């Protein structure tokens, strides 16, 4: 990892980066996010995000809406949310809430069960997961029943988060960046476990098809029924593999990557699963994880970054006096 200190609008900030073979790091306080909602609420929200329900967050605090939405989106990696995201929806645009497509939207007002009726919003037949951030409560508006994540995985995740919190409570000056890295990795490993075995169900015959017969639908690229049968808690995996656009996008990224970053994302998932398998007491073996173990992306130097607002003559002179220090970002030794 590397860190660069800089000033933005006279405030001290940090640019945090990492090697290409690591999960990207955020500067948002994920410890604050973790304490803002209980574990089950966060887990239910992530489940509904992945299964493409509509997500509504209510709060009188705009900062809380923005930070919470962004935190959820960051923790989804290696999945990427493909639908509309709005941290603050103005009342004049409430008609958007009747959209047939999934969305993740913040409403800057106190939540009331009468909200939809009072604003003449029809939600018949919709699946909407609601979080009242001010009261730390959640609600579901749906006629459907959604299967839960595999209980073994959620229990392990909850235990790991509690251990992480316990570790940082003992420190006098907890390091936000270190906490964020560990917290993000817990969710990343959770999703890697969720994806375990997906490679064996890829439809490699896809590449033998003629261009006319090729389709990018999940049914063409992936053997969903085989994937479902390979897991005990098939209810979730059936919905996950057949209905989730986030899962379909990941499979598309694996089969037909559009750029190097998508290849890197898939490599991270595959080798993380191999690394976890190596640690297993039952299935442990010496699987190669050359990408994760690579040190080709280490950062060797960091440099002072000038204030981006340096526009006055005095500020320009101050920067020019320090020009020997002024490189924009760290140098890589790759």
Detail the topology: elements first, then pairings.
Blueprint: E1 2-8, E2 11-17, H1 30-36, H2 39-50, E3 54-58, H3 62-75, E4 84-86, E5 103-107, H4 115-118, E6 128-132, E7 137-141, H5 151-169, H6 176-194, H7 218-221, H8 224-229, H9 234-243, H10 245-255, H11 260-279, H12 290-293, E8 299-301, H13 313-321, E9 331-332
Parallel strand pairs: 3-5, 3-6, 4-5
Antiparallel strand pairs: 1-2, 6-7, 8-9
Protein described:
The chain is of the alpha/beta class. Helices cover 42% and strands 13% of the residues. The chain contains 13 helices and 9 strands. The strands form 3 sheets. The chain has a 5-stranded mixed beta sheet with strand order 4-5-3-6-7, covered by helices on one side. It has a two-stranded antiparallel sheet with strand order 1-2. The longest helix is centred in the last third of the chain and has 20 residues, at 260-279. It is globular, with a radius of gyration of 23 Å. The two termini are 14 Å apart.
Give me some keywords for this one.
334 residues; alpha/beta; five-stranded mixed β-sheet; globular
Poorly predicted ranges? 299-310, 324-334
Order of strands, main sheet, comes to 4-5-3-6-7
Helices, by number, come to 13
User: Can you count the beta strands?
Assistant: 9
Shape: globular
- What structural category do the secondary elements indicate? alpha/beta
């Amino acid at each position: 990892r590397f860190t660069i200190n800089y000033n933005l609008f006279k405030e001290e900030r940090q640019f945090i980066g990492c090697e290409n073979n690591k999960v990207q790091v955020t500067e948002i306080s994920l410890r604050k996010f973790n304490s803002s909602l209980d574990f089950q609420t966060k887990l239910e929200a992530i489940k509904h995000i992945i299964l493409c329900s509509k997500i509504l967050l209510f709060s009188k605090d705009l900062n809380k809406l923005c930070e919470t939405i962004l935190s959820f989106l960051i923790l989804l990696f290696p999945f990427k949310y493909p639908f509309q995201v709005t941290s603050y929806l103005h009342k004049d645009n409430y008609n958007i809430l009747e959209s047939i497509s999934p969305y993740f939207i913040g409403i800057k007002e106190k939540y009331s069960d009468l909200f939809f009726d009072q604003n003449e919003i029809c939600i018949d037949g919709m699946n909407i997961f609601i979080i009242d951030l001010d009261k730390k409560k959640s609600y579901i508006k749906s006629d459907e029943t959604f299967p839960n994540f595999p209980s073994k995985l959620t229990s392990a995740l909850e235990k790991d988060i509690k251990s992480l919190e316990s570790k940082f409570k003992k420190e006098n000056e907890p390091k936000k960046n270190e906490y964020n890295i560990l917290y993000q990795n817990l969710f990343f490993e959770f999703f890697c476990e969720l994806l375990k075995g997906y490679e064996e169900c890829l439809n490699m015959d896809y590449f033998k098809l003629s261009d006319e017969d090729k389709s990018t639908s999940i049914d063409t690229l992936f053997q969903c029924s085989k994937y479902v049968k390979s897991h005990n808690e098939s209810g979730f995996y059936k919905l996950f593999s057949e209905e989730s656009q986030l899962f379909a996008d990941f499979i598309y990224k694996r089969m037909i990557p559009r750029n190097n970053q998508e290849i890197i994302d898939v490599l991270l998932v595959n080798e993380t699963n191999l690394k976890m398998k190596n640690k297993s007491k039952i299935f442990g073996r010496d699987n190669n994880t050359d990408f994760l173990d690579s040190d080709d992306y280490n950062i060797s130097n960091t440099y002072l970054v000038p204030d981006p607002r340096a526009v006055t003559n005095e500020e320009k002179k101050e920067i020019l006096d320090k020009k020997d220090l002024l490189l924009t970002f760290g140098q890589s030794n790759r």
